[in-house]
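WP5 quarterly update. Target: DNA2/NAM7 helicase-like C-terminal domain-containing protein. Source organism: Ostreococcus lucimarinus. Length: 315 aa.
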Amino acid sequence: MAQLVKKPSNAAPRAADSRPYCSVQPFDVVIIDEASQAVEPAALIPLQWIKPDGVIIMVGDSQQLAPTVISRSAQRAYYGYSLFERLSDCGVPTFTLRDQYRMHPDIVKFPSERFYRGLLRSGAGALYEDRVAPWHSFSNCGPYQFFNVKGQMNQDRYETGARSFSNSAEAEFASYCYKKIAVSAQLHKSEVKVGIITPYLDQVRRLRDFVEPLLKKDGALRTWAHVTYGTVDQVQGQEFDAVIISCVRAYPEGDKVAPDPPNTDIGFLRDERRLNVALTRGRYSTWIVGYAEVLKREAVWLDLIENAKTRNVFV
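Structure tokens (predicted):
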């Protein structure tokens, strides 16, 4: 199989001077990973190096984040429609990988039912007996939890000019959740990775504001529970032993709580694919921190909340 290399410096100059080329012959097989996140022009680039009778294998998940397209006019023109989705919609054979090896079975239940028609199964290494964490013995600290936190939402707290949101009540509660996990890990001498994630950049900063003082006060917590902060988009493709999701959306600061108050749009959280990414990062635990009264206005969140209540994991 040929290798892609850079054009030698003594070769004749071309317009695309840094363009790679095939030193011997095109590839027999081209594999494109994360294909559902690539816009079509990007996905077409590697296809120029395949033999006429070669094989293209595209690996992706159309139920998770689509290509990032900032321009709204481009979005309306379906620029965010990936080649992966187009080929699938045109009837090109697809194969669903049903066995998952990351999540505790309790974590995978809702995503499987909602996004994958109930097809996902937990494989070896991700069964109940494989995904037992020390903090699971604490009350309301199981593999999958929804914590109903009634807070208020603040826009542009850090005065960056960005249309981003934060929620101090959720950030404070998330720091409490992190401490429970960290203390448990320390007691059992078991290092873990904790992801504290949210849809909003301002909330990432707010989460740091509450968690970092805990770590300064007791540096051992960071040693036993390595923490990563990030937006949902930033952590796609990553996994953590425990994930704490701060949803942020609530009544804006200053709004009176009314039966049908204004300004309760849930923004990014309407995107089911973004929700799917958030829910499927955790190995041992996924804890959702949000205000159910506002979130349930969107159908997917209403289903999630009712599912949590039915399973007695709504607190």
